[in-house]
Amino acid sequence: MTGPSEPDALPQQVRLAATLLLGLGGLLVLSGVLIFLIRTNIADGAVVAAQEQESAPPDRSQLVGSLALVAGIFVAIGAGSLVAGYYLRQRKSWARFAGLGLGVLLGALSVQFLFAGGGGLVALLLPVGAIGVAVTVVATLLSAPTATWFRREPA
């Protein structure tokens, strides 16, 4: 990937990182909101499934609280990704560092989720895809054209 010939033009690397952060942020916010809205249904399903398997059912109220916490984390990380993705295109250097941090955080959480195992093919593909997004975001934000573009003063 080569950067544009005009010094103030947005490099492809920044465009790609911003697009990935915006897309990821939107998906995380949407997922967090959906988890929050259906957290009681998820908890009820987990209790029923445990009873059908004749194992000790989880505490429903703790499960609902944990799901609300997970939803809040998703929304917070998603909002951070949306803000960083938007301001990357505005040439804000703090957004570059925020994007790097979010990329590393996403990669670490995805590796942890991957090693946790369980589930089927989707449970394998989602963390692998998220690791790919995280590596791409970090690599593009650390690239030479990106660093050069952020060092230049806007016209």
Report the average pLDDT across residues: 90
Number of helices: 6
Q: Give the assembly state of these chains.
A: single chain
Q: Stretches where pLDDT falls below 50 for ≥5 residues?
A: none
Shape descriptor reads elongated
Largest beta-sheet details: none
Q: For the terminal residues, how far apart are their CA atoms? A: 24 Å
Bin the strand percentage.
Answer: under 5%
> What is the succession of H and E elements?
HHHHHH
Number of strands: 0
- The radius of gyration computed from the alpha-carbon positions, rounded to a whole number of angstroms, is 19 Å
- Tell me the count of domains: 1
Helix content: over 70%
Instruction: Return the structural class.
Output: mainly alpha
Structure description:
With 155 residues, the chain is mainly α. It has 6 helices and no strands. It has helices at 12-37, 39-52, 60-88, 93-116, 121-141, 144-151. The model has no long low-confidence stretch (mean pLDDT 90).
